[in-house]
Automatic annotation (TrEMBL), chain A:
PROSITE patterns named among the record's database cross-references: PAS
InterPro entries referenced in this protein's UniProt entry, alphabetically: PAS, PAS-like_dom_sf, PAS_fold_3
Transmembrane annotation, as ranges: none
CDD domains linked: PAS
Domain of life the protein comes from: Bacteria
Span of domain PAS: 26-77
Pfam family, one: PAS_3
Name of this chain's protein: PAS domain-containing protein
Cross-referenced Gene3D superfamilies: PAS domain
Length: 174, 450
């Protein structure tokens, strides 16, 4: 289900600084809850999006290695922050600073995932956009999607290694 | 289908029900008014009123049924949230209307509360690892929550500063402690090795001092022997001196006697000379006697026979004269020999006298030397006595040294044990300090591993 040929308008949507886009998924990433801000900004009706994979709003400018890191982190039970560009139902897009956390059941097992998305700072985006472009370019060097993702992951690893910080700290320095 | 469903839902929403009821109420009012104006339409009016009433009842019942379901879900979600379940949300929400607003408001309340709670938990979790960069992200929060988030974030900033200050102070103190502990360990190690070294040396000193004591005692005994021998030597030198003095006076007597013997010899020589002149006289007498005998013989010959007897006497006299002459010559020769021997004897006596004088001079020199020796021996004896006294002092001192070194050895053994104990404590302290610094500075590394 490669979506690189999705229709894009190039129009960026915005939401209020005092709003949070909230969504919840089950363990497989299927949407179980989307708040009204999500529905409004992404341009979906609730009944159209419930049960859909979260990748329904995936934007082609998003490097795969970031999602790989995201899933790796939350499946390990830890939270992650990530700048994410999402695609609206009509082809518009919007940037968020996503904070994804696992939701634990009463027995301590992960029962789902929970994403709170906030308006990102513009100056952070100015750093993120070229970085993601570089990562996408790196990933595109491989025809095989997995190998491309590995290249992107290696590039992120090298950048963090050179800076001498881990990913969490890196996100907060942006 | 979606559109139709929404219309259906809208038909049975509370606001729509209110519209329906208001419409029915107006129509009912109109019906009653119409019946009052035109009484002939009473039956129609009653039927219409009944119809309106039915519409009101049916739509009300349907709406209540529909709303009941929404209210139940709303109630369940709020109850779950009240029970602390932050994950609860209302799905399949109304698209419009007060209930929709309420559904959204409950979801929003839960979204905000859950976001704030998770943010606070994440920030605290990070802070518990000693990292304070993870703050509650205030964006997206509303109302009082923003203020609370700021309070938590300020507290985290303060904790960050305090932790950094604490870590740097602890690090400094730890470094200082490490140095001090290192120095302490080195000192203790040196102390141990030095006390070992000293202990060995003290053992050697103790051995040597007992050896010295023995040697000093032996020397002391030897000095005692020397002192005794010196006294004896001094006595014998004095004896030799007095004997030499005695022999000097004896040699004077001998010289005197030799001189007198020389004088006697010289007198003997002159006496021999006088005897020689006497003997010459005898020789002269014998020669003249011989001449007389010769003359007598001649005269006897002339006298012939008469003189024959006389000639015999004359010859006898001649023989006697010759014998005397011979005897005199013999005496002169003997005296000459005697004189010669006397002269030799005089020379010998002179030589003896000179020799005795030389001996006497030698004896005087010996006597002088002996006197000097006596003085020297007395000095030696004196010195030896002092040496004996000193040696006794040395023996006493060495005994003191020996007992002192024994005490020192005991002290050194105790010191060695103390130093070893100190080293152990220093090493344990070193471990503690390293642990402490490790715990203070490497919290993050440890957390990362766990």
């Amino acid at each position: 289900m490669k979506q690189d040929n999705l229709f894009l308008t190039g129009v960026e949507r915005h939401f209020d600084e005092h709003e949070i886009i909230v969504s919840k998924t089950d363990l497989k990433g299927r949407i179980t809850y989307a708040n009204d801000v999500f529905l409004r900004v992404a341009g979906y009706r609730e009944r159209d999006i419930l049960g859909q994979p979260h990748s329904i709003i995936r934007h082609p400018d998003m490097p795969r290695c970031v999602f790989s890191l995201l899933w790796e982190t939350i499946e390990a039970g830890r939270e992650i922050f990530a700048y994410v560009i999402n695609r609206c139902s009509n082809g518009d897009h919007y940037w968020v600073l996503a904070n994804v956390t696992p939701t634990f059941g009463p027995n301590g097992k992960i029962i789902g995932y929970h994403s709170n998305r906030r308006v990102p700072r513009r100056d952070a985006l100015e750093k993120v956009i070229p970085l993601y472009a570089a990562l996408c370019e790196e990933e595109a060097k491989e025809r095989n999607r997995k190998e491309g993702m590995a290249r992107g992951t290696a590039m992120v690893g090298k950048l963090l290694g050179d800076a001498g910080i881990d990913y969490d700290q890196f996100v907060f320095t942006l | 289908m979606g559109t139709r469903a929404s219309i259906m839902i809208n038909l049975f929403s509370l606001s729509n029900l209110r519209l329906v009821l208001a419409g029915c109420w107006c129509l009912g009012f109109l019906t009653i008014a119409s019946v009052l104006v035109w009484p002939e339409f009473l039956t129609l009016g009653v039927v219409g009123f009944a119809g309106l009433l039915t519409i009101c009842c049916v739509s009300g019942a349907l709406t209540v049924y529909r709303q009941q379901h929404i209210l139940d879900e709303l109630c369940d979600t709020v109850l779950a949230a009240a029970a602390g379940n932050m994950d609860a949300r209302i799905s399949n929400r109304q698209s419009r209307g007060k209930l929709a607003n309420m559904q959204n408001a409950v979801n929003q309340l839960l979204d905000l509360t859950e976001a704030f709670t998770k943010e606070a938990a994440a920030a605290m979790n990070c802070a518990s690892r000693g990292d304070y960069y993870r703050k509650i992200v205030p964006r997206g929060l509303r109302g009082d929550l923003i203020g609370y988030a700021e309070k938590v974030n300020n507290a985290l900033d303060i904790m960050d500063v305090q932790t950094k200050t604490f870590r740097s102070s602890a690090g400094r103190i730890g470094d200082d402690l490490k140095f001090v502990v290192g120095d302490l360990s080195d000192s203790a190690r040196k102390l141990t090795s030095n006390s070992d070294f000293l202990s060995q040396n003290v053992t050697k000193i103790a051995d040597q001092s007992s050896e010295m004591r023995r040697a000093a005692e032996e020397s002391s005994a030897a000095l005692d022997g020397i002192a005794t021998a010196t006294e004896q030597f001094s006595g014998s030198i004095k004896q030799i001196g007095s004997q030499i003095d005695g022999s000097a006076s004896l040699s004077e007597v001998a010289v005197e006697r030799a001189r007198s013997a020389g004088e006697h010899m010289e007198r003997l020589d002159s006496l021999a000379t006088s005897v020689t002149s006497v003997v010459k006289l005898i020789t002269d007498v014998a020669e003249q006697t011989n001449l007389l005998a010769l003359n007598a013989t001649i005269e006897a010959a002339r006298a012939g026979e008469a003189g024959k007897g006389f000639a015999v006497v004359a010859s006898e006299v001649k023989n006697l004269a010759n014998q005397s002459s011979h005897a005199a010559e013999e005496v002169i020769r003997e005296i000459g020999q005697m004189q010669e021997m006397t002269r030799e004897a005089v020379v010998f006596v002179h030589e003896i006298s000179e020799t005795i004088t030389e001996i006497d001079n030698g004896a005087r020199l010996v006597a002088d030397a002996t006197r000097e020796q006596t003085d020297a021996v007395a000095e030696i004896s004196n010195r030896i006595e002092q040496a004996v006294t000193r040696m006794r002092d040395i023996v006493t001192s060495v005994a003191l040294v020996a007992s002192g070194t024994n005490d020192s050895r005991e002290v050194l053994v105790a010191l060695h044990d103390e130093a070893n104990g100190l080293l152990g404590r220093a090493e344990s302290l070193d471990g503690d300090v390293r642990n402490f610094i490790g715990q203070v500075l490497d919290n993050r590394a440890k957390e990362a591993v766990s």
